[in-house]
Design a protein that fits this description.
4 strands, alpha+beta, two-stranded antiparallel ribbon, 20% helix
């Protein structure tokens, strides 16, 4: 399992509005997500990061899973 690291003070909210997924974050949240996605890019296909309000997202946020799919190079 990939370890996620967070920059102090991060805030991230997610919402689904009709067919649109909205991710809203402050600077620390965006930098944290960028670092985590960079790590995920080096993992095997099927690897994923699970985000929800119990581990990383602001209260009321929609659950979010980002998964690496096959394709490209490692």
């Amino acid at each position: 399992m990939m370890k996620t690291e967070w920059i102090n003070g991060f805030e991230i909210r997610t919402a689904v509005n009709q067919d649109t997924v909205v991710i809203s974050a402050n600077r620390e949240g965006l930098l944290s997500l960028a670092a985590q996605l960079t790590k995920l890019a080096s993992e095997l296909p099927g690897s994923h990061i699970h985000y929800d309000e119990n581990n990383s997202l602001e209260e009321g946020s929609a659950e979010m899973i980002i998964e690496k799919i096959p394709g490209g190079s490692l």
